[in-house]
Amino acid sequence: MAPNSKFQIPNSKQKGFTLIEAVVSSAVFAFVVVSVLGIYTVTIRLDSKTRAERAVQENARFIMEYLAKLVRNGSIDYASYPGQNANNTSTDLWVVNQANELEHIFLNGDNLSLTKSSSTLLNSSGVRVTKLLFLASPSVNPLTSDKLANQQPSLTVVLELTSNFGEKLGDVSKLNIQSTFSSREYPSREP
């Protein structure tokens, strides 16, 4: 053929992508993007769950340590204690502290409140108190009762805390705790 003819042989050194190469590279790119987004969302959910668990555990530790210190160093005020029911349980606790001040701990909605000279919350805003029970043992003051002269006052606390973090059920953390504290007051053994 003559060099001036209208029909030319295609040059095999032309640069560019074929349709198949473009489709394959788009599919690989989409797979990588979807994988990265999946890992990102799993990481975000794991972080939310971890924050919820940490908040619940920190609040539980603080509340239980405060109650343990209060009961061990103070005394249950049996005159004010409203736990005189069939199970001897209550959601209110009255304790006389070391400074001889009456402290009232009670469930106020989803919050654990402490009233002494003023009112304050024992749990943070990120945690709800969903269950609270106090069980004083024995049901009457053993320090003033002759029949219970060898018993030491103790308090069992049943507490359930739930986190306020996360919108999905898997992001909510719930913790149940039960502990018993004994007062350091001992009954007198004098006749």
Keywords:
rod-shaped, 9 strands, four-stranded antiparallel beta sheet, 191 residues
Q: How much helicity do the residues have?
A: 25-40%
- Counting DSSP E segments of at least 2 residues, the number of strands comes to 9
Radius of gyration: 34 Å
**Spans of at least 5 consecutive residues with low confidence:** none
- SSE order, as H and E? HEEEEEEEEE
Distance between the termini: 133 Å
Question: What structural category do the secondary elements indicate?
Answer: alpha+beta
Number of continuous helical runs: 1
Number of domains: 1
Strand coverage percent: 25-35%
Characterize the overall form. rod-shaped
Largest sheet: 5 strands, antiparallel
**Biggest sheet strand line-up:** 1-3-4-5-6
Summed over residues and divided by their number, the pLDDT gives a mean of 82
Structure, explained:
This protein has 191 residues and is of the alpha+beta class. The chain has one domain (19-182). 29% of the residues lie in helices and 28% in strands. The chain has 1 helix and 9 strands. It has one helix at 19-73, and strands at 75-76, 89-90, 92-96, 102-108, 111-115, 119-121, 127-137, 154-163, 174-182. The strands form 2 sheets. A 5-stranded antiparallel β-sheet has the order 1-3-4-5-6, covered by helices on one side. The chain starts with 18 loop residues before the first helix and ends in a 9-residue tail after the last strand.
